């Protein structure tokens, strides 16, 4: 299973998985979050998405238990 549910375990020295979401639509980004969830450690969100959805879209990812960075 892709990534398992790695965020629940302790640090095990494994490389973290980060999914780059190069989408400008908040709805599309949240669909990906629903599909993938915590099977990755973090998501890269575009600044355009942040500009459209504001801090609330980032908060949805963080509340789901994943890390986020904007680029």
Any overview of this molecule?
With 71 residues, the protein is of the alpha/beta class. 39% of the residues lie in helices and 17% in strands. It has two helices and three strands, in the order βαβαβ. It has helices at 26-36, 47-63; strands at 18-21, 42-45, 67-70. It has a three-stranded parallel sheet with strand order 1-2-3. Helix 1 (26-36) links the parallel strand 1 and strand 2 (42-45). The longest helix is centred in the C-terminal third of the chain and has 17 residues, at 47-63. It is globular. The N and C termini lie far apart (28 Å). The mean pLDDT is 86.
Write the layout of secondary structure elements.
Elements: E1 18-21, H1 26-36, E2 42-45, H2 47-63, E3 67-70
Any descriptors?
single chain; 71 residues; alpha/beta; globular
Oligomer: single chain
Helix fraction bin: 25-40%
- Provide mean pLDDT, rounded: 86
Percent strand: 15-25%
Quickly count the helices: 2
Overall 3D geometry? globular
Number of DSSP strands?
3
Please give the order of strands in the largest beta sheet. 1-2-3
Rg, please? 12 Å
Helix and strand run: EHEHE
Low-confidence stretches: none
For the largest beta-sheet, the strand count, sense and barrel status come to: 3 strands, parallel
- The secondary-structure class comes to alpha/beta
Concise account of the structure shown:
The chain is an alpha/beta fold and 71 residues long. It is built from two helices and three strands; from the N terminus they run βαβαβ.
């Amino acid at each position: 299973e892709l990534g398992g549910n790695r965020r629940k375990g302790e640090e095990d020295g494994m490389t973290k998985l980060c999914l780059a979401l190069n989408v400008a639509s908040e709805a599309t980004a949240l669909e990906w979050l629903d599909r993938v969830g915590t099977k990755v450690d973090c998501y890269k969100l575009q600044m355009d998405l942040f500009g459209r959805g504001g801090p609330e879209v980032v908060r949805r990812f963080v509340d789901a238990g994943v890390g986020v960075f904007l680029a």
